[in-house]
């Protein structure tokens, strides 16, 4: 597939490097612009819980650096295909996965099955959405949220962005999280660039809503499975039809 656009990957540097070859195999020019990086935060688990909820592969990674998930007695629920795969890599299979990888579906399917006497631990990013914990508390569940990692903007991002746009190529930026989008907005503002200048792809509806809230449209978004593989397939499908 030949395309005139240059795709810009905006995840962490390591994630971007992983996916660049896939785009190149498709005959698509793609470049890395890391807009987020993650850092571990200190935390300690001092209680027993009935459930642990994970909503990202990185949360599993940072939790597993300190605690062996293979022997944790609590049941584990996950949101996201990559989250479930990460859990398996650490020797554990999820006890619950929703049919669709968004918080609202998770709550719709988990809540009717488990009583409110369950104690829940929610290890998360410092920027994670609060809808799950908030809804569970409203339903009478005991939920403890702990920030185990933070998402920050890399120090080099602004200069990399400036160098990138000086090439004056036809860019399409791909986003996998609202935090990456918000960092992008901040860089554009400091560089006196309008976010309206380019087209965008999004990995899923939460990220799409963040982009659209800024008055931009999303050209590519997977319909059901919110992964990079699905985004690439969506790009291929749309381009074949155009």
UniProtKB/TrEMBL annotation:
<dbReference type="GO" id="GO:0006780">
    <property type="term" value="P:uroporphyrinogen III biosynthetic process"/>
</dbReference>
<keyword id="KW-0627">Porphyrin biosynthesis</keyword>
<dbReference type="InterPro" id="IPR003754">
    <property type="entry name" value="4pyrrol_synth_uPrphyn_synth"/>
</dbReference>
<feature type="domain" description="Tetrapyrrole biosynthesis uroporphyrinogen III synthase">
    <location>
        <begin position="22"/>
        <end position="233"/>
    </location>
</feature>
<protein>
    <recommendedName>
        <fullName>Uroporphyrinogen-III synthase</fullName>
        <ecNumber>4.2.1.75</ecNumber>
    </recommendedName>
</protein>
<dbReference type="GO" id="GO:0006782">
    <property type="term" value="P:protoporphyrinogen IX biosynthetic process"/>
</dbReference>
<dbReference type="InterPro" id="IPR036108">
    <property type="entry name" value="4pyrrol_syn_uPrphyn_synt_sf"/>
</dbReference>
<dbReference type="GO" id="GO:0004852">
    <property type="term" value="F:uroporphyrinogen-III synthase activity"/>
</dbReference>
<dbReference type="Pfam" id="PF02602">
    <property type="entry name" value="HEM4"/>
</dbReference>
<keyword id="KW-0456">Lyase</keyword>
<comment type="similarity">
    <text>Belongs to the uroporphyrinogen-III synthase family.</text>
</comment>
<dbReference type="InterPro" id="IPR039793">
    <property type="entry name" value="UROS/Hem4"/>
</dbReference>
<comment type="function">
    <text>Catalyzes cyclization of the linear tetrapyrrole, hydroxymethylbilane, to the macrocyclic uroporphyrinogen III.</text>
</comment>
<comment type="pathway">
    <text>Porphyrin-containing compound metabolism; protoporphyrin-IX biosynthesis; coproporphyrinogen-III from 5-aminolevulinate: step 3/4.</text>
</comment>
């Amino acid at each position: 597939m030949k395309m005139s656009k240059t795709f810009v990957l905006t995840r962490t540097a390591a994630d971007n490097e992983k996916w660049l070859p896939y785009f190149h195999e498709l005959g698509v020019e793609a470049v890395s612009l890391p807009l987020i990086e993650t850092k571990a935060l200190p935390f300690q688990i001092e209680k027993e819980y009935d459930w642990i909820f994970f909503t990202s592969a990185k949360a599993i990674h940072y939790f597993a650096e300190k605690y062996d998930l293979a022997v944790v007695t609590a049941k584990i629920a996950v949101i996201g295909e990559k989250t479930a795969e990460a859990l398996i890599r650490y020797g554990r299979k999820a006890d619950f996965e929703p049919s669709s990888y968004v918080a609202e579906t998770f709550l719709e399917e988990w809540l009717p099955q488990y009583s409110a006497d369950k104690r829940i631990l929610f290890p998360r990013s410092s920027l994670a959405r609060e809808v799950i914990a908030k809804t569970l508390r409203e339903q009478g569940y005991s939920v403890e949220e702990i920030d185990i990692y933070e998402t920050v903007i890399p120090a080099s991002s602004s200069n990399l962005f400036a160098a990138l746009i000086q090439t004056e190529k036809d860019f399409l930026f791909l986003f996998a999280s609202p935090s990456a989008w918000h960092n992008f907005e901040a860089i554009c503002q400091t560089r006196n660039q309008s976010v309206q200048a380019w087209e965008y792809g999004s990995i899923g509806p939460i990220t799409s809503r963040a982009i659209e809230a800024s008055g931009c449209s999303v050209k590519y978004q997977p319909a059901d499975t919110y992964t990079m593989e699905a985004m690439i397939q969506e790009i291929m499908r749309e381009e074949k039809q155009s």
